[in-house]
């Protein structure tokens, strides 16, 4: 679904997005997607707020895992539902504050990894020393235990982003469902009031009543960025040849994100509302200050070529999607030697009605020892994948990409953010070689020297 690569990204917010792990193919052989999020980087700072993550089985999210890297995440007001494996996987170099999250039917709210740094308040006052206020407690319903590790080390990593954390008003943990008139969580353009939760609970998290394993409909009071009404369709601009960048071998992901540099103003942006196009105001979290394409005249791509050009050129752009773009079978397919990991061999033997995933090997991995998802028991098999999903659409600096209603769909291709000051909002990304590990990412952040200012909200992502 979502990947931040080794160069890192500061000032990123992923908010109000629907990450749907329902799938025919999964490493866990149960219809729950495993490869959810991979948050890495030499220096990464991410607000992960108000998202709905459901029907997954792992890496939801995976944060850190390499020496010499620092990934700082504030995770608040997210709803984790129907996870057959683990949600948080905080490893070496990961520093996470988790508050106000609701876990329902989650087998393991976090993976047991003492090398990670995971601050989970047991009482509201546990956060006072770190961020100067009480935390909202996490809620567990029909779920396993949520356990913190090396919690004192997290506070030191929050110094640079403390004001941004407190700029977002955390609500009480709640369960909710996807919106109906737009993608993601909450109606696009609404701004529901949020109240900070105090409290004096003497347990690590609140135990909620049992819940049935169905999706829920009560929406939490989460402050959402405001977007103006999408304007009427103008004539498309003249286009140049499209530009795509081949994605790295990373887990299949999709998401929306925002980012701001740590040194920027901690106040919400005060951009002037444009007269002709959608603009994002009150961007929450670490991405505060992101303006994307600003007041640029909106453009409405009607072809894949136009879309690729608008996203990758050097001009500030407000790009409105009011149709589905279908990429499957447009760039051919590739058949090559891949890996059938042990879990897929076992899945085939079970014959339980679900399907597993084979893995595309990393370039040069002839021994099948350098590819994630291919274990020591893996065997060689031929794998066939659609090329379009492996070559994401490049998004350069100063871009706003926003969907109209529920029309903005990228079917068979994701995005790779190569610039800064980018807004991605209200689009649906799906069908990225779901039968394979490393088949393509929904949203990937990759630049040689890292990035800043990236905001994504109200996205809908399906394997």
UniProtKB/TrEMBL annotation:
Any one GO molecular-function label of the UniProt entry: pectin lyase activity
Enzyme class: lyase
UniProt catalytic activity: Eliminative cleavage of (1->4)-alpha-D-galacturonan methyl ester to give oligosaccharides with 4-deoxy-6-O-methyl-alpha-D-galact-4-enuronosyl groups at their non-reducing ends
EC number: 4.2.2.10
Keywords: Disulfide bond, Glycoprotein, Lyase
Domain of life: Eukaryota
Compositional bias of kind Low complexity: 190-203, 225-278
General function of this protein: Pectinolytic enzymes consist of four classes of enzymes: pectin lyase, polygalacturonase, pectin methylesterase and rhamnogalacturonase. Among pectinolytic enzymes, pectin lyase is the most important in depolymerization of pectin, since it cleaves internal glycosidic bonds of highly methylated pectins.
Protein's name in the database: pectin lyase
Higher taxonomy: Eukaryota, Sar, Stramenopiles, Oomycota, Peronosporomycetes
């Amino acid at each position: 679904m979502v990947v931040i690569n080794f160069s890192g990204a500061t000032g990123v917010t992923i908010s109000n997005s629907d990450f749907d792990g329902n799938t025919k193919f999964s490493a866990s052989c149960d219809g729950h997607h495993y490869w959810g999020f991979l948050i890495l980087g030499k220096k990464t700072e991410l607000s992960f707020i108000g998202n709905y993550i459901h029907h997954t089985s792992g890496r939801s999210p995976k944060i850190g895992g390499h020496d010499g890297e620092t990934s700082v995440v504030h995770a608040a007001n997210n709803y984790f539902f129907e996870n057959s494996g683990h949600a948080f996987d905080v490893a070496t170099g990961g520093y996470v504050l988790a508050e106000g999250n609701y876990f329902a039917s989650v087998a393991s709210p976090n993976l047991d990894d003492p090398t990670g740094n995971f601050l989970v308040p047991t009482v509201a006052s546990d956060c006072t020393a770190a961020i100067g206020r009480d935390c909202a407690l996490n809620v567990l319903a029909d779920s396993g235990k949520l356990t913190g590790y090396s919690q004192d080390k997290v506070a030191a990593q929050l110094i640079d982003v403390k004001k941004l954390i407190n700029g977002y008003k955390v609500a009480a943990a709640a369960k909710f469902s996807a919106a109906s008139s737009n993608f993601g969580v909450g109606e696009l353009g609404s701004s529901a009031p949020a109240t900070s939760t105090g409290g004096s609970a003497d347990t690590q998290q609140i135990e909620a009543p049992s819940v049935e394993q169905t999706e829920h409909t009560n929406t939490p009071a989460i402050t959402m960025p405001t977007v103006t009404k999408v304007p009427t369709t103008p004539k498309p601009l003249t286009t140049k040849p499209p530009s795509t960048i081949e994605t790295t071998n990373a887990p299949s992901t999709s998401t929306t994100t925002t980012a701001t540099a740590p040194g920027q103003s901690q106040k919400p942006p005060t951009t002037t509302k444009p007269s002709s196009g959608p603009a994002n105001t009150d961007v929450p979290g670490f991405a505060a200050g992101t303006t994307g394409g600003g007041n640029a005249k909106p453009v409405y791509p009607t072809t894949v070529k136009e879309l690729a050009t608008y996203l990758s050129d050097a001009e500030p752009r407000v790009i409105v999607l009011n149709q589905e773009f279908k990429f499957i079978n447009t760039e051919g397919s590739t058949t090559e030697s891949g890996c059938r990991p042990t879990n897929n061999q076992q899945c085939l033997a079970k014959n339980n009605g679900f399907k597993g995933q084979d893995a595309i090997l990393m370039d040069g991995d002839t021994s099948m020892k350098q590819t994630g998802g291919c274990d020591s028991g893996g065997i060689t098999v031929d794998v066939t994948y659609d090329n379009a999903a492996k070559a994401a659409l490049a998004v350069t600096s100063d871009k706003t990409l926003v969907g109209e209603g529920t029309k903005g769909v990228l079917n068979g291709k994701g995005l790779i953010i190569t610039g800064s000051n980018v807004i991605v909002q209200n689009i649906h990304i799906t069908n990225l070689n779901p039968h394979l590990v490393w088949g393509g990412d929904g949203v990937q952040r990759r630049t040689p020297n890292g990035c800043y200012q990236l905001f994504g909200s109200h996205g809908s992502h399906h394997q």
